[in-house]
Design brief:
The protein is α+β, with helices and mostly antiparallel strands. The protein has nine helices and six strands; from the N terminus they run αααααβααββββααβ. The protein has helices at 16-26, 31-37, 42-50, 58-69, 76-84, 119-123, 130-138, 193-202, 207-217, and strands at 113-117, 142-150, 171-173, 178-183, 191-192, 229-235. Strands 1, 2, 3, 4, 5 and 6 form a six-stranded antiparallel beta sheet that branches. α1 (16-26) runs parallel beside α4 (58-69), α4 (58-69) packs across α5 and α7 (130-138) packs across α8 (193-202).
């Protein structure tokens, strides 16, 4: 008796959020772009496919797709503004509006605040750090940051006075051939948080890209260097 042929598994039926996401990807947008448009983490967009989520974002995604296909709108901030007008907060079983945990912006009254992200968050634009930078800009604070990347990614040797640290105590060398360098401090005055907030906005909210661009522009790292750790610190100027 000949062996039975296995029938290919039927392709799962995608929910409407996933279908709209597919159409936006066909128009040239990545899942990360779509996450920025709806102001959510990219992992949620993936869950449209894996966990059948996204029903609350269907009206917003429909309007965004229409704006792209018929209105010719391509600018991410403009699309995000369209999505925001059509995003409804979810409700509880009783019909009340559900509480949504806000983004924590941990800045004290004295202006001291810190935010750190690792490789996974960096790959999606370090979105967690954007509210910290925005709040620091609103308060008129100063800002410093620490980056970690492969030693070969830096243009200057550690301790070089051409680079911002200038002294070796601001450089941490690690066994995996990576190096941490700090840029800005209360002693040197740091950077204007408002200037960095503008850079982040110009990079469509991508904090990693904004910091990377500054490091390249100021001749500190190679253009193809990859940041694998990023820390932002804020304080109030004296």
């Amino acid at each position: 008796m000949p062996p039975r042929r296995r029938q290919p598994a039927p392709r799962p039926v995608l929910n409407e959020a996933a279908q709209l996401t597919d159409q936006l990807q066909e128009a040239g947008y990545t899942k990360r772009d779509i996450a920025r448009i709806i102001d959510r983490d990219p992992s949620l967009v993936s869950q449209f496919y894996t966990k059948n989520k996204g029903a609350a974002f269907v009206p917003a995604l429909r309007e965004v797709l229409a704006a792209v296909q018929t209105g010719g709108i391509t600018d991410l901030p403009e699309l995000a503004a369209i999505a925001a007008r059509h995003t409804q907060r979810r409700t509880t079983a009783s019909g009340a509006r559900a509480r949504v945990r806000g983004k924590a912006v941990l800045i004290t009254r004295t202006g001291s605040g810190t935010g750190r992200v690792g490789a996974q968050a960096i790959a999606s634009g370090s979105a967690r750090l954007r509210p910290l930078i925005a709040e620091a800009a609103r308060r008129g604070l100063r800002l410093a940051f620490t980056v970690r990347l492969a030693k070969t990614g830096y243009l200057h040797p550690s301790g070089s006075r051409t680079d911002s640290p200038g002294i070796r105590r601001d450089v941490i060398q690690r066994a995996d051939h990576t190096e941490e360098r700090s840029y800005g401090s209360a002693q040197t005055g740091g950077f204007d948080a408002a200037d960095f907030a503008r850079r982040v906005n110009a990079a469509s909210g991508d904090v990693t890209a904004a910091v990377h661009q500054w490091l390249v522009e100021t001749g500190r790292i190679h253009p193809d260097a990859h940041i694998i750790h990023l820390e932002i610190r804020t304080w109030r100027p004296r």
